[in-house]
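Lecture 7 notes: from sequence to structure.

We start with a single chain of 450 residues. Read the sequence below before looking at the structure.
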Amino acid sequence: MVLRYKDAIKSLSSLINFERSLTAPNHSQFHIERMTLLMDLVGKECLEIPTIHVAGTNGKGSVSSIIASILNQEGYLTGLYTSPSLHKPTERIRLAQNIISEDDFADIFFNILESIEKVHVDKKYGEISYFEAITAMAFLYFKKKNVDIQIIEVGLGGRLDATNVVFPSVSVITPIGLDHVGTLGDTIQKIAFEKSGIIKKEIPVVVAPQNEDAFEVIANISKSKNSEIISVEKNYSWRRTHFDFYGQKFILKRCDKTFDLFTNNLASYQMENIATAISVIDVIKDQGMNVSDKSIKNGVAKFDWSGRLEVLQKDTNILIADGSHNAHGMEKTLKSIKKDFDFEEMIVVLGVLRGHNLHGISEQFIGINSKFVAVNSREPRALPSSDVFEILQSQGLNLISFEATVFEGIQTARIHSSKNSLILVTGSLSVAAEAIQHVKQVEFEIYPDI
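Now the structure, written as tokens:
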């Protein structure tokens, strides 16, 4: 079956892949009708599963994973679909949070291949993309496994995203910031409009704390669709009570309830993500699902989401991998690090993808005693490290060097570190992933032909 998996990956990789494209896709390349046609062929009954649909700029993967973890603790069989993957594509499709096997991945791909080819023959809406194919695979897999509920993370935007063929029980919008501006628009309002495209008529929408302009757009669209807004910020408050390298404890309060919670995820922003996830649980409980406080507590404790302020080493120097790839996310990451870690200088191993706002990311380091090592990941869209170096140099930042790989960047950072240095490897999930692969010896897959 190993060969069959490799054949599936090779065939899947031959499809249009906007995630790895050197140019940003534009709206003319996205057709929700194309995904609708594909699902008509694969089987529309796949879309009848109770669904939680999660959009946003930052935190949507964490929120999705927390929801799945809580529901698993209650005994529900969940399907979890997220993107992108850190180390291999099978990570995107999870049953009860267990990654789909290579055998099942291959089987489900070849199951839908004929439907993909029929869409190509039709030619009306163009060819199926890599993301659309894996999305359809997830829907079919969850149907075949007869899951009780599926948690579906949006890939890009929302309104035209391939996942937006679902009719959810609840929609979720995590914090919105400036990201993918070449595709989604260059203002918070434009991006919020695209994200709000997942809001369905008379379906409640849980909204995480937002920029005022973003919330106004969400509120107006919700009102036009007669969809109730559940504001996390209005309904919940949270306060941390303990932090160490093993995790954090905090108290989460709702008007009629108090939760005493623990998570081994170290980022302070995860408290907000957990509050958002529990707000979603409140909604589906009102809709008839049973979820105990014990399952909420255990689900939060067991949730794990790699590459988000992940401490890889803490002996000689603290070494952190974090996938923040926009200004909003980096601001939250650095706020968390400054609050919880002792260091005199930060050595930043930084690499970004083409199209991401490097200026906005690097500006978040102003006021922090920091030095930079520019790198590029193996991701085809990675901005060359020499270009990263030049841009950082133009901003007057303190530079060490630029290196050809993330591994070499980490080695250089270690050479230039002192006992009071903190090393942060960041700028994109692909950079964080390669740091994890290097330090933890995690197996990964490379596809040089795409």
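The chain has a mean pLDDT of 93. Keep this in mind for problem set 3.
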